[in-house]
UniProtKB/TrEMBL annotation:
Protein name: M23 family peptidase
Source organism of this protein record: Spirosoma pollinicola
Keyword Signal among UniProt keywords: yes
Keyword list, A-Z: Signal
Record's signal peptide: 1-21
InterPro entries for the chain: Cell_wall_metabolism_enzyme (IPR050570), Dup_hybrid_motif (IPR011055), M23ase_b-sheet_dom (IPR016047)
Domain M23ase beta-sheet core: 179-273
Record GO terms (molecular function): metalloendopeptidase activity
Source superkingdom: Bacteria
Length: 287
C-alpha cells in the first residue's frame, strides 16, 4: 500500500510540474518570432520601433519601423535581430537568411578592350577610386538621420522593368569578374536620372569601372548609386530632393551599351534596389 501511495504522489508531482511549465510558457507570450529572407533582400519589423540591431550592429528605426538589409553575400543561416520600442521594451527575433542562386552572365565579345586586358595605369586608377568609395558605402556606427520615406522614388520617368541581373556572377570574354552590385534598367541614352530620395551628394566623379557616377546619402545609412551616366549635374555636398534630375543616362565605364545602373547600400549591405521601390508592407515581416 505504501508503494502504491508513493507512486501516486510521484505522479501528482510530475503532473503539477508539467502544468506549471505550461503555465509559465503561456504567460511568457507567443512562440519565438522570426522572419525569412533571401540574400539581397530586406526584412521588416513594424510597430513603434526606436532602435534596431542585427548581431553587433545597431541603427535607428525609420518612421517607427525597423529594417534589416541583408547583403547579397551574407552567409546563409540564422541571425539574432532585436528592436527597442518607444516604450523601452527590448524584443528579439531570428533572421533566417536563405541563399539566392547566382545568375551566370557572360559578356562575350566585349567592345571596350581596355576593360578586358587592364593596363597597370588603369589598375592603379581603379584601386585609388575604390579607396575613396569604400569608406563612403560601408557601415557607419554614427549615421545621419533618415531624410527618405519608403518606398523610394523611381530613378527615371516611366521606369521599365529591371533586367534582373542584380548580384549576377559575371565573366568578361570568359574571364571571371566581380559580381554585379546593382540593378540595370533599359533606359535610353540621354534620359534624365532622378534621385530616389532627399539627400546629400557624397561623390560625383568619373570612375574607371563605373564611368560617370553619383553617390547620394539619404541618411540612416542608405546610399544610392547611379553609374555609367552620360553626364551628371550635381557636385559633392550638394543637397538634392526626391525626383530631382542628377544627370543623364549614358554608357560610360565598363558597359556594353547605354542603360541605367542603380545600386543601393544600406547599413553597409549591398541589396537589390528593387526592394525599396515596393510598398514596405510587401517586405518579409517578423511574426
Amino acid at each position: 500500500m505504501k508503494l502504491v501511495r508513493v507512486i501516486t504522489l510521484i505522479g501528482v508531482y510530475l503532473s503539477l510540474t508539467v502544468a506549471q511549465a505550461q503555465t509559465k510558457k503561456t504567460s511568457s507570450g507567443l512562440p519565438p518570432k522570426s522572419v525569412s529572407v533571401a540574400q539581397g533582400q530586406v526584412a521588416r519589423w513594424a510597430g513603434n520601433c526606436l532602435r534596431c540591431s542585427l548581431e553587433k550592429r545597431a541603427w535607428a528605426a525609420v518612421n517607427g519601423t525597423c529594417y534589416y538589409p541583408v547583403d547579397m553575400d551574407m552567409k546563409p543561416g540564422h541571425y539574432t535581430i532585436s528592436r527597442r520600442t518607444t516604450g523601452g521594451k527590448l524584443e528579439t527575433a531570428t533572421l533566417k537568411v536563405a541563399a539566392k542562386e547566382c545568375i551566370q552572365e557572360d559578356l562575350a565579345n566585349f567592345p571596350k578592350k581596355e576593360y578586358v586586358t587592364i593596363s597597370t595605369t588603369n589598375q592603379a586608377r581603379a584601386t585609388k577610386e575604390a579607396s575613396l568609395v569604400n569608406p563612403l558605402i560601408r557601415f557607419q556606427a554614427k549615421e545621419r538621420p533618415a531624410v527618405f520615406d519608403l518606398p523610394v522614388g523611381k530613378p527615371a520617368h516611366n521606369l521599365p522593368q529591371g533586367e534582373g541581373n542584380f548580384g549576377a556572377c559575371r565573366t568578361l570574354n570568359g574571364q571571371p569578374r566581380d559580381r554585379h552590385t546593382g540593378q540595370d534598367y533599359p533606359v535610353g541614352v540621354g534620359k534624365p536620372v532622378l534621385s530616389v530620395g532627399n539627400g546629400r551628394v557624397l561623390l560625383a566623379a568619373n570612375q574607371f569601372y563605373s564611368g560617370n557616377a553619383v553617390y547620394i546619402d539619404h541618411g540612416n545609412g542608405l546610399i544610392s548609386e547611379y553609374f555609367h551616366l552620360k553626364s551628371f549635374s550635381v557636385k559633392p555636398n550638394q543637397t538634392v530632393t526626391k525626383g530631382q534630375s542628377i544627370g543623364l543616362v549614358g554608357e560610360t565605364g565598363r558597359v556594353t551599351g547605354p542603360h541605367l545602373h542603380v545600386g543601393v547600400r544600406w547599413h553597409g549591405a549591398c541589396i537589390n534596389p528593387g526592394f525599396l521601390l515596393i510598398d514596405p508592407s510587401d517586405m518579409p515581416g517578423v511574426n
